[in-house]
Each structure stands twice: as structure tokens, then as C-alpha cells.
Design brief:
The complex is a heterodimer.
Chain A lengths: L1 H9 L28 E6 L2 E7 L9 E5 L2 E8 L9 E5 L4 E8 L10 E5 L2 E7 L23 H6 L4 H21 L1
Antiparallel strand pairs in A: 1-2, 2-8, 3-4, 4-6, 7-8
Chain B lengths: L14 E2 L3 E5 L3 E7 L9 E5 L2 E7 L9 E5 L5 E7 L4 E11 L2 E8 L22
Chain lengths: 182, 130
């Protein structure tokens, strides 16, 4: 599927999670790359909905930016500050800058983007631009011999009320055409 | 890690081991665990036989009719346990969930806390200080 492949492609290099970075031990020696959070993406109607794992992030640091068809998410995860005499007995979590970019399969309605942060999960809803959504175009049929109304038949045939009712609607359009021809 | 499966091989509950930090402070230990997507109502912290067990099912947000585009988050239940030493005070355990991080504070028993030993000042007229 197009959408699926596109997102997969862009994300193939994601290797770093909060806990299993190979840079973890030597972080003091050089600046580590930003953390890349795990993320689920679903298509819901005309929206793309993201669920990003961001445990322990400072809510004020959360930043979601959409430029054209690229969404960039930034956040900061603080590390605990140890006072004198305090020490790590075990250290598996990492802090620092968090960043994730995503190429979107469509342009979004920028002022309708919604983002909620709860229980360490950031949910972002990206609605597709209304102008770009597929629209069904009504096909008008112009025919010299527009069908004659059949209301009379519908009303007398009680056994197939539903089916005839639909035919009746079709005849409604026929009426419209007839009016136009007047 | 074990995974419970049904007859047709579908995973029922997959344990997820959350990343954890343990920091020792003067009067307590602080255990911080990443449990994004865990609800506080379903978070279980149990102390039994000096073992502190954490279990929290991971809540997913998908709705019916959603089409999966990308799936990276794990499915299952967060499980992790810690053995407490004799020095821990079993009545001094506190748990708090903050933005997807479970923070457990385990108080040290009085014996395990650092104590300042007062130094007695002994100065006699023996001339040693001069």
C-alpha cells in the first residue's frame, strides 16, 4: 500500500529507543544523537493518528511542527540530577533531546491539528486538507427521453415497497430534468 | 521471556520489561520505570516476601475501523520485579505515576540510613594542642 510503504521507508533507520541505545554508556564523551521514540500510526477516516511513546517528557518542551508534508516532533526528557552522596545502582533510561520526523502522505489542515499528551503517550491527529480530499462528483445524465414518473406504479405495488421506493427516488431526479426542460 | 499462547498460536499476554533506573539516596531508593500507555487504574504494585512486583497492562488507543499504517510500540503487559534487601522498610514504599513514568520510593530502615556520629571534643591540659 502506498501510504504504508512511504512511512516504512522513511523510518527504516529507526534504531534508538529510550532504553537500548549503544551510546548509552559513553554519553559523557560526546553528544548523543537525539532519542527516537517508538510510534504507532493509524489511518482513521481522513485523518492520520499518531501515538508516540514519550515517557517522562517535560510537557512544556513538546513541540509538533508541520511544514508542507513533513511533521517534526521535538521534546526534551530531563535526567534526574543527583545530589552529593546519591548514586545510580542501575541505569537503563536515557534523557536528552527527542526528535522524530515523518513524511506525511498528504497535506494537512494546519489549524485543525490536535495533540494530547497523557500517560507518557503523545497522540497527534493530522486531518487531511479538505481541499485535497477525494470528492464524489454527481454525474448528471441529460437525455432527450427522460424517464416518465412511475409514482403510480410504486404506490400500487405493496409487496416490494422498499425496492420501488428507491426507484421512486430515481424518478425524483427525472422530475428535476423535466422541470429544467420546461 | 515466556509468552502465553492459545491453541492457534495467538499471543495472549506478552510481558514487556520496562527500562528502569535505580538511584540510592541517603534515606531511600528511587526506582523510575518507563511505562508509557499504562493507566493508573490498572497499575499493580505488590510487595510480597520482600519482592516488589509491578504489573501494568499497556493500553492501546486504536479504534474500530482504524487501518494500521505503522506499528512500533509493543503489545502486552509491563512486568518487572525487584528484590528488596533487609535494609528496606516495607512500610515505607510510595508509588507515583508521572507522565508515563512509574516512580517507586523505598524508604530505608532506620538502621540503613546514614547517621552522623557526634564527635566528642576532648581537650585536656596535656599540652598536645599547643
Amino acid at each position: 500500500m502506498y501510504l504504508h510503504n512511504l512511512l516504512r521507508q522513511l523510518d527504516e533507520d529507526w534504531t534508538q529507543r529510550f532504553s537500548d541505545s549503544p551510546m548509552f554508556e559513553s554519553r559523557g564523551a560526546f553528544q548523543a544523537a537525539p532519542l527516537k521514540p517508538a510510534m504507532d500510526v493509524v489511518a482513521r477516516g481522513e485523518e492520520l493518528v499518531l501515538f508516540v511513546e514519550l515517557p517522562g517528557v517535560e510537557p512544556d518542551s513538546l513541540d509538533v511542527e508541520v511544514v508542507d508534508e513533513t511533521m517534526t516532533l521535538r521534546a526534551r526528557r530531563a535526567e534526574p540530577t543527583l545530589n552529593d552522596g546519591e548514586r545510580y545502582l542501575r541505569r537503563e533510561r536515557r534523557g536528552g533531546d527527542v526528535m522524530r520526523a515523518l513524511q506525511l502522505p498528504f497535506r494537512v489542515e494546519a489549524d485543525q491539528i490536535e495533540a494530547h499528551y497523557r500517560n507518557g503517550i503523545l497522540e497527534v491527529r493530522l486531518p487531511r486538507r479538505v481541499a485535497d480530499r477525494p470528492r464524489r462528483i454527481n454525474v448528471r445524465v441529460s437525455e432527450g427521453d427522460a424517464p416518465q414518473p412511475r409514482e403510480a406504479i410504486t404506490e400500487t405495488n405493496d409487496a416490494t415497497v422498499t425496492g420501488e421506493g428507491e426507484t421512486g427516488n430515481g424518478n425524483g431526479n427525472g422530475n428535476g430534468n423535466r422541470n429544467g426542460n420546461r | 521471556m515466556t509468552t502465553a499462547t492459545t491453541a492457534n498460536g495467538t499471543a495472549l499476554i506478552r510481558p514487556i520489561r520496562p527500562a528502569a533506573d535505580i538511584i540510592e539516596r541517603a534515606a531511600d531508593w528511587v526506582v523510575a520505570m518507563d511505562v508509557p500507555g499504562a493507566d493508573v487504574q490498572q497499575l499493580d504494585v505488590v510487595l510480597e516476601n520482600n519482592e516488589l512486583r509491578v504489573a501494568a497492562p499497556l493500553r492501546l488507543h486504536e479504534q474500530e475501523g482504524d487501518r494500521q499504517v505503522q506499528r512500533e510500540r509493543p503489545r502486552g503487559i509491563y512486568l518487572r520485579s525487584f528484590r528488596l534487601g533487609e535494609e528496606a522498610d516495607p512500610n515505607g514504599i510510595d508509588a507515583e505515576l508521572r507522565h508515563g513514568v512509574l516512580v517507586l520510593t523505598v524508604r530505608k530502615g532506620v538502621e540503613a540510613r546514614p547517621r552522623r556520629i557526634p564527635v566528642r571534643h576532648v581537650e585536656r591540659g596535656d599540652g598536645s594542642n599547643e
